[in-house]
Structures are given as C-alpha cells and as structure tokens.
C-alpha cells in the first residue's frame, strides 16, 4: 500500500508493505554518491545491503547507523551480551570492503534520523534502512530539489561524519587503496603500450613471437612522458601509506620499516627510469619522425633535383636515408629500451608490495570504541 501527495518539488509518501524510498533504491545502480542515515539495519535480511553492493565501483557510499541495545553503561550481563551480539552483526554486515570499493561506514550512537539518498533524489522520513521497515506504516518525503540535496551533502553529511565513529580506527584507507590500484592499473597499461611500440608481434603459419622493431618510428614521446607522469604520481603513494599505517597500527615499527625500505627502492627505480627516458638514445629515437625527415631532405638537399621526372628517385633516396638513420637509432636504443621495460616491471612489482600493506588484515583495525562491551 502506498499513498502519495505532491507538494511543490517534493512528494509526501505513506507506505505499508512497500519501501517508501523505492525511488532511491532504483537509482542506486547508476548513482555516483549514496548516503544512508538509519537508526538500524536488518539482522536477518540482505536485500538492502545487496542494493548497495550493486552500485558502481566508482560510487561513493557513506553509511551512518546506530546500534540498538548498545548502551554507554551496562547494568547486567544479559544486556552486555545482547549488545555484543548486535554489535557483531553490524560489524559483519557493514564491513566496508564487503559492500564496495569506496564505502565509508560510521556509527552514531545518538542517531535516530533516517535519510536515504543519492546525488539526485532523497528520502527523509520515519523508515529505517531495514527490510522490517517495509512492513511498517511509514511516512516520509521524496525530494528532488538540487539545492536541498546540496545542502544535505555540504552541511548535514559532514556534520554527521564529525559526530560519528568511523568503522576503521582513525583512518579511512579505502580512497587511498582505490587511488593506488588505479595507479597500478595505469602503470601496467603504459608498460604494455610501450612494449608494443618496441616489440612487434610476428604471427604467421610458422608460429607467433615478438621481435624488436628496427625499422618503424613507433616509439612515442607522449607515452614516455605519460610513464614519467604516472611514476611521479606513484611516488606519492608510499608516503600516504606510511602515514596511514602509522595511524592505524599505532606505530608498528616493523611494518613501517618495511614500507620505508620499499619506498627507498621505488625512489631508486624511478630515478633509473627517468635517466633512461632522458638518455640520448631513447630521446633521439622518440623524437625522430621518418616522414618529417624525408620532407626535410626533399625541401633542402634534394630541392634542386626533385623536379617531376626525378621526384620519385629523390623520394626513394630520402626514404633510404631516413631508414638508415632510423635503423641506427633503433639499434643504439635497444639496450636502454630493454632496461627501461625491465625497470618499469620492477617498479610495478615493488609498488604492488607496498600497496598490499594496506590490504593486509593486520592493519584493518576496527575502531575499538564501537564495541564497548
């Protein structure tokens, strides 16, 4: 059962045996931002959590919830046991990485409010983000006013975050992990892109293999610049990870030393990569363009001879000269290009080892203030 009443740019909604915020649920799969403020969640059902899990991997999800039966002080062992059971359910069902890549979960033990929203639609009313609320009589409003939604996002959500306890102790590492994984993916893509400019695939009846390119000006200066740029971005990540681990583990010296050593190795590898990219052999090859060289010869050295009857011969001579130069450049650059590919591979593997430090369970510290039993 559902009753609605339009009022300006909002809609009053009265429901029984339906979700009053179904419009919001329907947009979650394509939403960029999802905010849930609820007094409780369901201990037995998973439909609503599954709705969140179906959101895009790039969607930012924030959940704020209370925990029923959790008290500041317990006056009996039975109350303490009930609270501990409820807290365990909430910590299990709301584990951020279980729901998605960019999920932040907060607990506010004074909260009794209910907001379910995306960046384009919001429900505010009496219904919790729980399957049980579907069967209750609930009242609320559906609002699509952009100014009101911006007010919630810019003022109410930050205020809730400030007054709430985060799921993980003092540090939300998920955005950092996402940033690091995106950088790793870019390094992998650029390494493959560079390899395909240096080595060509032979695929014929006699077999398939890669061979070094001696006769095409395929090495891209833009790709080399992109490698330098992503390595510079990657070099910032270990420092962020170091600070995160220092906070989350409360100065785990063994782990911090491991990250610091890996950080030093990345600095050394990035210097080697930079030096190779700036080496004369790679620089000269990446800035040599066969057609430009041919045209330049035709306009200068062969300008007097490149009349109509002799043009084809001049083009052949200029092309042969360009090919000779290109082959020499490719030959001179081969050792450095092979070293460059190897150093990028080494950098990729070393970078991965430092990123795994924030994927390791031993530094995912659940905030100890959540379970006070």
Q: Averaged pLDDT, please?
A: 90
Uncertain spans: none
Biggest β-sheet, characterized? 9 strands, mixed
Cα end-to-end separation: 41 Å
The count of β-strands is 11
Please count the helical segments: 12
Beta-strand residue percentage: 15-25%
Shape: elongated
Strand order of the largest sheet: 1-2-8-7-6-3-4-5-9
Please estimate the helix content.
40-55%
Order of helices and strands: EEHEHEHHEEEEHEHEEHHHHHH
Radius of gyration equals 30 Å
Overall domain count:
2
Which keywords apply here?
373 residues, alpha+beta, 2 domains, 9-stranded mixed sheet, 12 helices, elongated
In short:
This protein has 373 residues and is α+β, with helices and mostly antiparallel strands.
What does this structure look like?
This protein has 373 residues and is of the alpha+beta class. It has two domains: 166 residues, Endonuclease Chain A (Endonuclease, Chain A, 2-Layer Sandwich); 188 residues. Helix 6 packs antiparallel against helix 12, helix 8 packs antiparallel against helix 9 and helix 11 runs antiparallel to helix 12. The protein is elongated.
């Amino acid at each position: 059962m559902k009753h609605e009443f339009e009022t300006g740019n909002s809609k009053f909604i009265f429901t029984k045996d339906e979700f009053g915020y179904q419009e919001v649920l329907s947009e979650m799969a394509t939403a960029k931002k999802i905010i849930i403020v609820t007094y409780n969640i369901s201990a037995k059902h998973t439909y609503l959590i599954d709705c969140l899990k179906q959101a895009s991997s790039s969607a930012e999800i924030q959940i704020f919830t209370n925990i029923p039966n959790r008290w500041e002080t317990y006056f009996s062992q039975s109350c303490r046991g009930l609270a501990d059971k409820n807290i365990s359910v909430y910590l299990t069902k709301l584990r951020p990485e279980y729901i998605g890549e960019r999920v932040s979960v907060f607990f506010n033990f004074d909260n009794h409010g209910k907001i379910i929203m995306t960046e384009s639609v919001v429900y505010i009313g009496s219904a919790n983000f729980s399957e049980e609320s579907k069967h209750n009589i609930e009242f609320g409003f559906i609002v699509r006013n952009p100014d009101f939604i911006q007010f919630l996002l810019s003022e109410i959500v930050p205020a809730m975050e400030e007054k709430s306890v985060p799921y993980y102790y003092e540090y939300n590492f998920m955005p950092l992990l996402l940033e690091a994984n995106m950088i790793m993916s870019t390094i992998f893509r650029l390494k493959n892109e560079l390899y395909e400019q240096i080595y060509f695939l032979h695929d014929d009846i006699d077999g398939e293999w890669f061979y070094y390119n001696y006769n095409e000006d395929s090495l891209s200066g833009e790709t080399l610049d992109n490698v330098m740029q992503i390595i510079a971005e990657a070099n910032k990540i270990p420092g962020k990870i170091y600070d995160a681990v220092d906070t989350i583990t409360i100065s785990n010296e063994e782990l911090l030393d491991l990250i610091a050593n890996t950080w030093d190795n990345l600095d050394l590898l990035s210097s080697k990569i930079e030096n190779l990219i700036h080496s004369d052999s790679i620089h000269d090859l990446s800035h040599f363009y066969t057609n430009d060289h041919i045209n330049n010869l035709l306009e200068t050295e062969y300008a007097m001879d490149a009349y109509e009857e002799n043009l084809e011969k001049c083009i052949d001579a200029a092309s042969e000269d360009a090919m000779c130069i290109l082959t020499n450049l490719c030959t001179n650059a081969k050792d450095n290009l092979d070293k460059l590919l190897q150093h990028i591979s080494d950098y990729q593997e070393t970078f991965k080892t430092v990123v795994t430090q924030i994927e390791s369970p031993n530094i995912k510290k659940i905030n100890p203030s959540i379970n006070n039993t």
